[in-house]
Amino acid sequence: MVKPSFHAVEKTNIETQAEDLVPLIEEDTPSSNKGSEMRGCRTIVTDVLRALIHTIWGWSGPGTLIAVLCYYHLGGGVLLFLIVFITCLGLLYNGQDLLLYYPDQPDSSRVFVPSPSVVGIHSSQYENIFIQTADNIKINALLMKQAPSVIALVPTILFFHGNAGNIGHRLINAAIFHSLCHCNVLLVEYRGYGKSDGDPYEEGMYKDAQAALDYLQNRGDINSNFIFVFGRSLGGAVAIDLASKPRNRGKIRGLILENTFTSIPDMGRHLFRLDLIKWIPLFIVKNKFFSMSKISRVRMPTLFISGAADELVPPDMMKILFERCGGAKKMAVFENGSHNDTWQRAGYCETVKDFLNRYSGVSKQPSTSGQPVEPPSPLATTPH
């Protein structure tokens, strides 16, 4: 089994240990089935297949039911072919989650979520909250907030992270937004990640995003006119979906996208580079995240942040999204920015701050009262 390495390069900051879209190729060795030596080869194969179908019942769903019905009504090679074919389809369809979602990377990510205090945020300046989604899933979130006297005067960033780790692994990045861009930051944990309930899947993540936006809209101390949505990598796809919905156009002041992709099928073709990939029909692709078809429906101002040295998501995908975006837009390219460390490049914070100031109607962010927060070092070690 080949697993993604988050420590192959000497990067010790929180962010780079938990990003993004690294494919996992898992080779399972089938277990042997102990049967009687008197059984024929066909009987043994049939028993093994029946046991396999039983174990993936929850995976294959309707496909498995069809296979079982075929078992009783058909025979010979047709039966064997149908069972194997439908089983493979079920495994292929549901196994895609293993290639995309990494809530357990790094280890203990599902049980240990660092608090903002580890990056210098005082306990009075953040809240650990749980939000109920429309389908009754509780998701975790961390709200970094400015002092009470200015909390309603500054923008709020709704932060959607990549496909690995948890919100605690993005604390340095969020703390920089909080302290240097002088804004509130709500870090949202997807279902199945960190301390959130449920299991991750595309439509579920969209519901998580909507619940988080509605939560901010209903907070009395947050200015609902100053909400900006930020998404990196997979989080960019979640952010685009949220911003593309007509019901949210008046709720989101601006959109910030960093190193995100056009769609998962496009990423599959880029990462695997196999001729077979392009022949896979879309109905077999479980997680699609069709950002390219949604970005034209985005009407609010959008900042595209692209690392020209992104080794995972081709920068050309960001260019395509930029060209198709339906709102006022700006592209900021960081020549030395890779997929995981573009946010550490010189000028990054200033780019975000200028965008926030321009579209929040605030020419200069009000200074916060109380103890100032020193910007955390981008090379801080991960708390474990």
TrEMBL record:
Residues 362-371 have a biased composition (Polar residues). Pfam families: Hydrolase_4. The chain crosses the membrane at residues 71-93. Residues 157-274 form the Serine aminopeptidase S33 domain. InterPro entries: AB_hydrolase_fold, Hydrolase_4. The keyword Membrane applies. Residues 362-384 are annotated as: Disordered. One of its GO terms (molecular function) is palmitoyl-(protein) hydrolase activity. SUPFAM superfamilies: alpha/beta-Hydrolases. One of its GO terms (cellular component) is membrane. Keywords: Hydrolase, Membrane, Transmembrane, Transmembrane helix. The keyword Hydrolase applies. PANTHER family: ALPHA/BETA HYDROLASE DOMAIN-CONTAINING PROTEIN (PTHR12277), PROTEIN ABHD13 (PTHR12277:SF81). This is Putative alpha/beta hydrolase domain-containing protein 13. It comes from Stichopus japonicus (Sea cucumber).
